[in-house]
## 1
Amino acid sequence: MSRRFSVERVQEQLTTRFLGRKMYYEETVDSTNLRIRELAKAQAPAGTLYGAEVQTAGRGRRGRSWHTPAGEALAMSFLLYPDCAPDRASMLSLVAGLGVAQGCQELGIPVQVKWPNDVVLSGKKLCGILTEMQADPEKIHFVVVGIGINVNLKEIPEELQQVATSLYQETGREWERETVMACALNHIEKNYEIFQQTADLSGLQKEYESFLVNCGRQVRIEAGKDSFTGTAMGINPMGELLVKREDGSVCPVCAGEVSVRGLYGYV
Ligand code: BTN
């Protein structure tokens, strides 16, 4: 079914006030995050979205690359000007990850969230999010939220098969990418408005935890010499993962550069 992506088809399913109302969609770009950065420098309006069929330099977290096969995936980035301090911007990854999860749930797909922001299906990664910011120490200039969703991928590269999946692989059918995109954006905007009321996750914490695959599980926090193992309990209003150590103390873990692994695999 790999037909041309239709921006009109997304827009007719959007219920957002500003998110995705201005949308660019190209066949091939370097990275949609980079395209949004350029638009931010030209003062594009909040919610401006850039999508692409193929990214030649798609970027993931921690310097990894991100693969976007033509006609099968969703790669999109959007622009925000949040009214909060720079140290709050990383919470927008959780706001977006939750929105993708809620959008998938609305479509009947039983996804979960792996802290901080991977959306997972059957214990494997379905969606990744890369949030980038330009800011002074005191003030955010703009935030770019980039989202990659493995929608209709028929094959996952061999080296990723243990950890990554697609909607097609888990459900055995193709999904309309425009519907998946619109559902996610509708939820992300609602979450963003809740986030903006308090500049933290207090209004989204319970909903986020209802999707959290790590809850009650043993996790390994990889942070170089400060790595440790414990049981994930949930998140706090700052979006930090609460991990109970063996001595009973509960340690809040900040997303930053740490990586979280299940003791027996990806989740
Ligand atoms: C991760 O490592 O999990 C984050 C992956 C983020 C990929 C998306 S695809 C759209 C946007 N453009 C990029 O270059 N990266 C993000």
## 2
Amino acid sequence: MVKILGIESSCDETAAAVVEDGQRLLSNVVASNMDLHVQYGGVVPEIAARSHLEVITPVIEEALQQANCTWDDIDGIAVTYGAGLGGCLLVGVMAARTLAIVKNKPLYACNHVEGHVYANFITSTPLPGYVLPKQPPAFPILALIVSGGHSQLVLFRDHFDYTLLGQTHDDAIGEAFDKVAKVLGLPYPGGPSITKKALKGNPQAFTFPKAKLAAKYDFSFSGPKTAVLRAVQELCGKDHTFPSFKLAELLSEPQKADIAASFQRIAVETVADKTIQAYQEYAPATVIIAGGVAANAELRRQMSERLTAIGAPAVTYTDPKLCTDNGAMIAALAYYQAQHHQPTADPYTLAIEPNLSM
Ligand code: KG4
Ligand code: ZN
């Protein structure tokens, strides 16, 4: 049995978890500093970094305690070294480096976006309240990775053998949810707020344009996001000179609900369209959705319905608590790095890579 402690601090969540053999979740502790960012409508990097610093030690201690582990039980330490906010990554990486030296454990450097995919390899837990996939996804895997910082379609032939099929040219889909929520005066993070508001709205009320791009599997979300702003300005009888943060006060609740539902429909359709198209081209054994936006019920519904309609296997996704940022996905990824003899990191020199790509 291999137990790995995973540490994640790339954005606004300070997280640590212990995962056994890359599949059994023994603990999962996430301290979100989201509340600190609500008043700004988005993550403020310096505030996030300071908050990581304050809570990282207790978060790690709690992850060990929840897993009933002492340091002697831990076989390795995994940490996100990119992509993410520099000051935030630094806190997790320095903590992991220090612990690897002091506790004499191997150190695994993990790519955050790959980590989101590996959340889907976690299939069991003694912890209450998790709905997990029954088995790990089979290769080849078509992975739609949709979060606040990333929107990518990736084909995994095997562990660590993958091709990036497409990605966003501008905003990530989660970022677009967050920005649209801000225009509608809905609280940060925008994904869950828009989902909630959309329940009362008509998804056909507005037709926001889907971006058309030359590259088959690339995305763009800045167009639909700007279309929402223009529609709101028109509804309110204001032009671009009117402060956008004051527009929401002029909208009725039903108008907000219709815009939320219509935007959500377009955003979800955009990523679902490309995923279905890629499924038809590559015929993977499994389709998974990963990242914070994979928690979106409308995305899950559309993907399931459309894949079933073309005779494809059901889409795989995991518990919403493992879709958004967490340490468990990092620990799961590191297990496979070890299994596949990927080099471990040097605890004396491991550097952060804020712009790390896949
Ligand atoms: O994966 P994640 O926690 O962080 C990044 O790696 O970016 O994703 C956070 C993003 C935020 O933009 C948030 O608005 C979005 O995921 N999100 C959702 C939902 N829950 C979180 N978007 C749509 N629907 C949701 N239910
Ligand atoms: Zn993430």
